[in-house]
TrEMBL record:
Stored InterPro entries: Peptidase_S1_PA, Peptidase_S1_PA_chymotrypsin
Matches recorded under Pfam families: Trypsin_2 (PF13365)
GO molecular function, one term: serine-type endopeptidase activity
SUPFAM superfamilies assigned to the protein according to its UniProt record, in alphabetical order: Trypsin-like serine proteases (SSF50494)
PANTHER family: PROTEASE DO-LIKE 10, MITOCHONDRIAL-RELATED, PTHR45980
Domain of life assignment: Eukaryota
Name of the protein described by the UniProt record: Serine protease
Length: 102
């Protein structure tokens, strides 16, 4: 019988609660085309509701999006990577950066 490579993996879980300011987060992903896992840590520095449109030429209607800003280092290509709380539950997903930010 063949064993699947993922048979012993545990699925990630989403947090049932909204993260709070200054909560620690860990971001994991494979940015910049790398093959090794990147792990960075930071804190939640802002939580707000924003009007959001995919892009200036997007034909999608604008909507409201809950935005959680963190200070963990996230590089290009990390979009879609999860941000975990201290209990390893997903509290957010990386999707956009700010140019020239540190």
């Amino acid at each position: 019988m063949q064993t699947l490579f993922f048979s012993d993996l545990v699925p990630i879980t989403w947090s049932d609660e909204l993260a709070s300011l200054r909560s620690r987060v860990t971001v994991r992903g494979y940015p910049l085309g790398g093959t090794g896992l990147s792990v960075t840590e930071g804190v939640i520095s802002r939580i707000e509701s924003k009007n959001y449109r995919l892009g200036p030429t997007s034909n999608m209607l604008p909507g409201t999006l809950l935005v959680i800003q963190i200070d963990a280092a996230i590089n290009g290509g990390n979009s879609g990577g999860p941000a975990f709380d201290a209990s390893d539950r997903v509290v957010g997903v990386a999707f956009q950066g700010i140019d020239n930010a540190q």
